[in-house]
Specification:
With 160 residues, this protein is α+β, with helices and mostly antiparallel strands. It is built from 3 helices and 4 strands, in the order H-E-H-E-E-H-E. Strands 1, 2, 3 and 4 form a 4-stranded mixed beta sheet that branches.
Length: 160
C-alpha cells in the first residue's frame, strides 16, 4: 500500500493528534511583500508638479514655450491643465531623480524658493511613492514681473 501526500488538509483532521489549530502559512511571507509595484514616470511627475506649485514664490512651471503651448492646449474643449508641465522624472525600482523648470515671482529669494520647492517635492514624492528621491534639479527659467501680463490671461480686449 502506498501513502499519498497530505496536501491542503485542515489542521484539525484525523491526522492531527494534538488537536491544535496552528495553521501553516502558504505562499511564504507577509502578503504585503508578495509581488511587485511599479510606478510610472508620469505619476511621480504629477506628484512633484503639484508639490512644487504649492510653494509660495512659484509663479508657474515650465519654459515660456511650454507655457504658451500649454495655454493653447488649456483652451481646447476637453483639454485640462497639465500638472506635469516643467517636470521630468526618471524612476527606477527604488529611487527617482527629478528635473524641474520654474518661474518665480519678482522680489522673492530664488535660493529660498528653490530650497522650499526641493523640500516639498522630496517630502511629497517619498511619502506617496516610497521611492527615495536622490536629486531634485531646479532651473529657474524666468521671473514674473508685477506689471507683466500672464500668457494665460487674455481677459482684456484691445478694443472696447
Amino acid at each position: 500500500m502506498t501513502e499519498t501526500p497530505q496536501r491542503n488538509r485542515p489542521e484539525n483532521s484525523d491526522n492531527n493528534a494534538s488537536g491544535g489549530s496552528s495553521l501553516t502559512k502558504r505562499g511564504g511571507g507577509d502578503p504585503g511583500t508578495r509581488g511587485r509595484t511599479t510606478i510610472a514616470d508620469g505619476v511621480v511627475e504629477k506628484i512633484a508638479g503639484m508639490a512644487a506649485r504649492d510653494v509660495d514664490g512659484v509663479h508657474a512651471m515650465g519654459s515660456g514655450l511650454s507655457r504658451t503651448f500649454g495655454a493653447v492646449r488649456d483652451r481646447v474643449p476637453g483639454g485640462s491643465k497639465s500638472v506635469t508641465r516643467g517636470v521630468k522624472a526618471e524612476v527606477g525600482e527604488t529611487q527617482t531623480a527629478l528635473d524641474l523648470e520654474i518661474v518665480v515671482d519678482y522680489g522673492v529669494s530664488i535660493a529660498d524658493v528653490a530650497r522650499d520647492v526641493r523640500e516639498n517635492v522630496v517630502a511629497a514624492v517619498e511619502r506617496m511613492t516610497g521611492l527615495e528621491v536622490v536629486e531634485v534639479n531646479i532651473a529657474v527659467s524666468d521671473v514674473k514681473l508685477p506689471d507683466e501680463d500672464d500668457d494665460d490671461d487674455d481677459s482684456e480686449s484691445r478694443v472696447q
